[in-house]
Amino acid sequence: MLKNYFKIAWRNLLKDRQFTFLNLVGLSTGLACALLIWLWISDERNMDKYNKNDGNLYQVMQNMKELNGITTMEYTAGLLANALKAEMPEVQYAATVVPASWFSSKGIITSGETRMKAGGQFISKDYFKIFTCPFLSGDKSRLTTDKNSIAISDELATKLFSSKELAIGKTIDWAQDEFNGTYLITGVFKKNPSNATERFDLLFNFDLFVEKRPGMLSWGNSDPSTYVLLKTGTDIDRFDAKIRNFVKLKDKDAEKTLFVRRFSDKYLYGQYKNGVQAGGRIAYVKLFSFIAFFILVIACINFMNLSTAKASRRIKEVGIKKVVGAGRSTLILQYLGESFLMSFLSLILAIILMVFLLPVFNQITGKQLVLNFTTQVIITVICITAITGLIAGSYPALYISGFKPYAVLKGTFKTSAGEVLVRKALVVFQFTLSVFAIIAVLTVYRQINYIHTKNLGYSRDNVIDFAIPLEMDSTKLVTAASFVDELKNIPGVIHAASYYHNLMGDHGGIGGFQWPGKDPTKDIDFANLEVGSGFLETVGIRIKEGRYFSSGPNAHNEIVFNESAIKSMGLKDPIGKTVKFWDQQRQIVGVAEDFNFESLYQNVTPCFFQVFPVMPNIIVKIKADSEKTTLEQIGKKYASFSKGLPFDYKFLDDEYQALYTSENRIATLSKYFAALAILISCLGLFGLAAFTAQRRRKEIGIRKVIGASATRLAIMLSGDFLKLVIIANIIAFPLVWWAMTDWLNSFAYRIKMSAGIFIIAALCIVVITILTISFQAIKAAIANPVKSLRTE
Q1: Nearest Cα to Cα of residue 60 among 37, 40, 35, 77
Q2: Weakly modelled stretches of the chain, pLDDT under 70
Q3: How far is CA 716 from CA 79, 173, 684, 703, in A?
Q4: Which residue of 77, 248, 287, 401 sits 20 to 30 Å from the alpha carbon of 124, by its own alpha carbon?
Q5: Residue 5: predicted pLDDT
Q6: Which ranges in 494-594 belong to alpha helices (H)?
Q7: Are 788 and 698 in contact (CB under 8 A)?
Q8: Which residue in 49, 749, 152 sits closest to 457, CA to CA?
Q9: How far, in Å, CA of 569 to CA of 675, rounded?
Q10: Which of 93, 86, 161 lies closest to 125, judged by CA?
């Protein structure tokens, strides 16, 4: 019986090749898209889930109350981990970590004649009880008891000493800020896997960090990260309530509250607004989950529409089978079998498509996805295909099996109004999604273009930056400072300066400022941008009042605020006035026009610049049209200053674009998936147009005989479909307006949803519809009426 079902199904597929081809292309394209998106989503959801204790591993987060709302930070006081472990019974272990990303640039390793850059982090003693960081050789306990010992990754050990075994007992010189020195290698660990967001090559003892920066032992400090391993069964909401005011109990002046976030949630749920979790990359995971679902739905709708449309050709088959005793359940199984056969044929084609598309997909997403046919993958793919076949075939099977045999065999069977209505509703649903996709893509592209072209208040054109190995002893300081001066003498260099933080959101924060007329109850947390003399001129930040920093030794006693800072402070005539912080006095010499020093998701906040003699990062403004020769000269200077290290530089504009890498990739993927959704919809529309033309051959022939022109007939055949498309536009417009407005609201600086986007989308979908159905309409309109009437 089952064999006969598949034999009949196969014959039916071969009998009507045009509809089979359209269904096969539509379903296989939908399946390929869905499977590619599934691979991407699986990889996104797997980020940072490499720890064995993932279920109970949390990071302590900190909310800080400011004038413009609440700021959420990942960094906390260095004393917090030990205090939580001692006072909170829910905490099994707690660790303090200064991550590699905390530093503005990588440190320099020197081993014999080998020099290279690498990132290292500082850890406290419970780190290995919380995180999965297996040691391949050496003693991990010695690392947390000896401040002069370090552990290195297996990759770094191989680069430096050929093998991890030979690394133990060796020494390396390390240069990074004040942590320069010679360290003994006491362990080699397996480097974090590719699904880790924080990757590092060296581990240092946190006690060393405290020794060099004793400010860590202050409750007012917020530099390291704090991680806790909570006991199984801990109620997270109750624990959050217990630690909420923990810092205030230690420091009554602190405007800080605490809560915990699961460590592996950082990647997907990293965005906060006014102290509340407000999304992150999870929004894109949800978006592409919906895209995968809707593309599959569109493909299934194609199958339903084409199957029910051509059902009139099979009514006699159904009537005869029912007369000879076939039950409805038997017929349903037969037609579902056809649907499953089509789905699994589509799966084969979809996998072939994936093999060819995966390298391109990886290039767009920046990932290294691999289609490994593990048991889980096979089961998932089979389930997706089976569900697709069930959804696509259920309505046609129920519809065809429901024909009445007496009406079929007497020739009185007619297409019901309900059938036509359902078919039209499915077409409207398809094109509603297509209109939604077009408007969404246009909106995303306009917003991304706005981000790339917005005037940020400083110049990114022809500006490069790179890091230098900054030794902290006095002789090397002179060398580093003179290096910046030597750069200024290179023909083609307009300006050069050093800096510590950047203009992409990486900056410190300082509170507790005192200024003339300050309200004692009012405090402001300022973004702290530490720069060398000439930095503001190099990036073209304009001064609204006062002047730039002086070039002499007095510059370190000066300070420049931005407009937002002066406004928040309530200062009038600020130039010349003195402010105090950390027992230091600085004179206000300038007020900079507001500029965006964070991503465009945030509004401009109060910030200030302070000058230090030399910082570990160099920024250079180059004359236009002289980039090649100027970069060569800068590279030679760098090589003479830092022998053995490659000259790794980046253009400031490229770094700014990198801030929005996710948005750019999402925009590109959305464009392709929207195009595929429209293509699949058009395949179905093409098939329906062909079926409609066939069904109305007699009517068309009669109309031509009595004088109807080919143009009029083509318009008649196209009109019904255009009405459906117009209805789809009307339904899609309010839905997409709501969805895209919600997405745009995540940006502090954004475009407005204009009527032009909707008009363009409507015109696009109408033109696409006309082009899709015009071939069938014109073909039917110009056909010889004699042939169509002779067949009756």
Answers
A1: 77
A2: 1-19, 67-68, 306-332, 334, 392-393, 395-420, 470-481, 687-688, 690-701, 703-705, 707-711, 713-714, 717, 775-792
A3: 79, 82, 19, 11
A4: 248
A5: 57
A6: 535-539, 563-569
A7: yes
A8: 749
A9: 52
A10: 93
Q: How far apart are CA 266 and CA 97, in angstroms?
A: 15
> Residue 575 in contact with residue 566, Cβ under 8 Å?
no
**Nearest C-alpha neighbor of 341 from the set 691, 8, 680:** 8
Residue whose pair of structure tokens reads 């398809």 in the numeric block: 430
| Residues 463, 506: Cα–Cα separation, whole Å | 18
Query: φ and ψ at 784, to 5 degrees?
Result: -70, 115
Q: How far is residue 773's CA from residue 776's CA, in Å, rounded to a whole number?
A: 6
CA gyration radius, the chain: 34
In 3D, which of 464, 460, 461, 458 has the Cα closest to residue 487?
A: 464
d(CA 636, CA 649): 13
**Cβ of 47: how many Cβ atoms within 10 Å?**
17
Evaluated on CA atoms 102, 116, 178, 185, the torsion sign reads positive
Smallest CA-to-CA distance from 509 within 523, 498, 497 is with 523
Measured distance CA(459)–CA(537) in Å, rounded: 10
CA distances (Å), 468 to each of 645, 682, 729, in order?
9, 57, 57
CA distances from 325 to 318, 352, 415 (A): 11, 42, 24
Q: What is the C-alpha separation between 699 and 51, in angstroms, rounded?
A: 70
pLDDT at 779: 65
Q: What is the per-residue pLDDT for 141?
A: 86
With beta carbons less than 8 A apart as the criterion, state whether 762 and 729 touch.
yes
- For residue 230, which phi and psi values (nearest 5 degrees)? -85, 150
- Whether 769 and 685 have beta carbons less than 8 Å apart is answered as yes
> Which residue, among 290, 286, 293, 364, has the nearest Cα to 31 in the 3D structure?
293
What are the residues whose beta carbons fall under 8 Å from the beta carbon of 704, sequence distance 6 or more? 710, 713, 781, 785
Other Cβ atoms within 10 Å of 180 Cβ, number = 18
How far apart (Å, rounded) are the C-alpha atoms in residues 131 and 143? 15
- 651 burial level (CB within 10 Å; 0-12, 13-18, 19+): middle
- What pLDDT is attached to residue 547? 92
Do 614 and 484 meet the contact criterion of CB atoms below 8 Å apart?
A: yes
Contact indicator for 63, 257 with CB cutoff of 8 Å: yes
CB atoms within 10 A of CB 520: 6
- Report how far residue 385's alpha carbon sits from residue 348's, in angstroms, rounded to the nearest whole number: 10
The closest of 92, 113, 215 to 160, measured between CA atoms, is 113
Give the DSSP letter of residue 231: P
Alpha carbon distances (Å) from 570 to 65, 169, 547: 19, 59, 20
- Among residues 246, 247, 142, the alpha carbon closest in space to that of 187 is found at 142
Q: What is the DSSP string of 647-709?
A: ---EEHHHHHHHTTHHHHHHHHHHHHHHHHHHHHHHHHHHHHHHHHHHHTHHHHHHHHHTT--
Q: Look at residue 309 in the predicted model and tell me its pLDDT.
A: 60
Is the four-CA dihedral 635, 636, 641, 645 of positive or negative sign? positive
* Alpha-carbon gap, residue 435 to 446, rounded angstroms: 17
Count of CB atoms situated within 10 Å of the CB of 2:
9
Distance CA 752, CA 121 (A): 43
Expressed in percent and rounded to 5, the helix, strand and coil fractions of the chain are 55, 15, 30
Given a contact cutoff of 8 angstroms between Cβ atoms, the answer to whether 124 and 81 are in contact is yes
Give the H or E element holding residue 159. Answer: helix 154-161
Distance, CA of 105 to CA of 123 (rounded, Å): 18
Strands 107-111 and 114-118, by their bridges, are: antiparallel
